[in-house]
Amino acid sequence: MQKEPDFYQFNTDKIERFLSKYGESTNVYIGSYDRYGEKITDFSCSEEERDYIKTIVPQSFIKDILSRVITNGLEDQVVENTAIENVKVAASALKLDGKCMIVWVFFGIMSDGEKNNDVLEKLSRKTSFPQFLNAIDVLRDIGTDRLRAQAYLVQTEEEKRKTIYSAKEMDKAISIIKGEP
Question: How far, in whole angstroms, is CA 148 from its chain's centroid?
Fold first, then answer.
């Protein structure tokens, strides 16, 4: 897929801080990817936890769910099982006018599922399945509202630029009519 310029410039540091705090408060791990499937931020956790998550969910798994929500117009959000029953991975694409802008990828350990002691011991965040789904929905809603606000600002700036240009052109035309240099 050929890249095109984005009106929305991602501030990686802000996204990382936000996802870290949001992940801690909802007991899930979250990473972000752009609409081309390239990583913006890694999972919001310690390096040790991140390395362990990668043993459970290989990059090929992430690429598969990313491609489903980025390219398929029917799926904006998917939740998948992993090889470990109480571990889920989800992807939620934020779209603006049908175009994917950013994808949140969630990793969650379900406290209400079958227990797997290895996973429970090595990773600190646990949630229930309904809370996992709520975390996905809330972040999707917050992100979508933020994208819409950013799009509105860009549109407003463009209209302002056009108005200023038109006013300057009108001033030039009036000067010519009046015979002013």
Answer: 13
Which amino acid appears at position 66 of this protein?
L
Q: With both helix axes pointing from N to C terminus, report the angle between 12-26 and 129-178 in degrees, rounded to the nearest 10.
A: 150
- Per-residue tokens: 113: 């599922």
**Nearest Cα residue to 115 out of 79, 84, 82, 83:** 84
Q: How far apart are CA 53 and CA 48, in angstroms?
A: 9
Q: What is the pTM for the complete model shown? A: 0.78
Nearest to 139 by CA among 8, 31, 6: 31
Q: How far apart are CA 177 and CA 15, in angstroms?
A: 53
Q: What is the CA angle 114-51-76, rounded to 5?
A: 65
Which residues have C-beta within 8 Å of that of residue 86, sequence separation ≥ 6? 109, 110, 111, 112, 113, 114, 115, 116, 119
Return the HEC string of 47-105.
HHHHHHHHHHCCHHHHHHHHHHHHHCCCCCEEEEECCCCCEEEEEEEEEECCEEEEEEE
Chain segment 90-129, per-residue pLDDT in tens: 999 988 877 888 899 999 999 876 666 566 677 889 999 9
